[in-house]
Inverse folding.
């Protein structure tokens, strides 16, 4: 039995790196695949697994193929809605030290609804988030003002925010320092510049990038699977497919306010302990929205999640 780290997942095959740095192509043992698994991918990038090696002959050449037989308990993970609606979720990555959310105010647009859903999901799984506002070289005066307002808002909530431009090489050293010695998962809509930033930070990866669709100002998907890369300055980075809708799973309605840090803090002053902040009298949260202590955009995002039956409403 060998142990290793899953560094790439293509759906049916997994690349596993052992402690010596050797890599093996592995499949999942059949029984393990269906054992109590409620998501589409029982193994994800970032998982630590146990596997055995088997010799396989093909065209008179013998190769070793791994068979994954066990998975170490995860400390956390990030999920999204699965394309396969018969399943609950697709795990993007596991055992993460930091989630990096790359945001653009244009080319394409990232809405506050999308940002807040991502933050709520990360809070639910206790994953720190770094928000990266990218492509700042393309913003006009009004967009720059909006960017600064959003940066001030999220920093006031305790989230680290950086401003970057791959084209102008703005903020890249700060981003490098923020990623150092951590296992980082990079998320955001297709087209926000995730792969471009990673290529600059880690020369030689040559991750595929594409231009934004001229007709729709939205990104074209370039990454089709998650993959973990070692950073030469320390740590790992996980490149993921662009996400068009981010879902929060395994979350009861009464829990949602817990993952909006300012709403949870102020809710202690509500008249009722189980206040939903929608219709109850003596609601300190609604009062805080009125007097500007809570941003209207954040409260709107909270209500949207509260009212969503499947927690998968699109982020646009």
């Amino acid at each position: 039995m060998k142990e290793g780290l899953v560094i790439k997942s293509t759906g049916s095959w997994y690349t596993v790196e052992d402690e010596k740095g050797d890599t093996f192509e592995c499949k999942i043992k059949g029984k393990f695949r269906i054992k109590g698994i409620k998501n589409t991918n029982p193994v994800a990038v970032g998982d630590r697994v146990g596997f055995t090696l088997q010799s396989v002959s093909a065209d008179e050449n013998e190769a070793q193929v791994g068979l994954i037989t066990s998975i170490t308990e995860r400390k956390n993970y990030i999920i999204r809605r699965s394309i396969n609606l018969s399943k609950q979720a697709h795990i993007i990555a596991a055992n993460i030290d930091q989630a990096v959310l790359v945001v653009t105010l244009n080319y394409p647009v990232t809405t506050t609804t999308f940002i807040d859903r991502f933050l709520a999901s990360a809070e639910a799984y206790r994953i720190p988030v770094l928000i990266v506002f990218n492509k700042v070289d393309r913003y006009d005066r009004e967009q720059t003002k909006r960017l600064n307002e959003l940066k001030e808002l999220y920093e006031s909530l305790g989230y680290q925010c950086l401003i970057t431009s791959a084209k102008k090489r703005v903020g890249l050293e700060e981003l490098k320092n923020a990623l150092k010695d951590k296992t980082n998962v990079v998320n955001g809509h297709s087209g926000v510049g995730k792969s471009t930033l990673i290529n600059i930070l880690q020369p030689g990866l040559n991750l595929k990038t594409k231009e934004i669709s001229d007709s729709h100002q939205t990104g074209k998907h370039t990454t089709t699977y998650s993959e973990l890369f070692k950073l030469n300055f320390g740590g790992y980075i996980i490149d993921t497919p662009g996400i068009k809708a981010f879902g929060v799973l395994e979350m009861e309605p009464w829990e949602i306010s817990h993952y909006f840090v300012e709403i949870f803090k102020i809710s202690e002053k509500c008249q009722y302990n189980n206040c939903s902040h929608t219709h109850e009298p003596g609601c300190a949260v609604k009062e805080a929205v009125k007097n500007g202590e809570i941003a209207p955009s954040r409260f709107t995002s909270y209500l949207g999640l509260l009212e969503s039956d499947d927690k998968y409403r699109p982020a646009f």
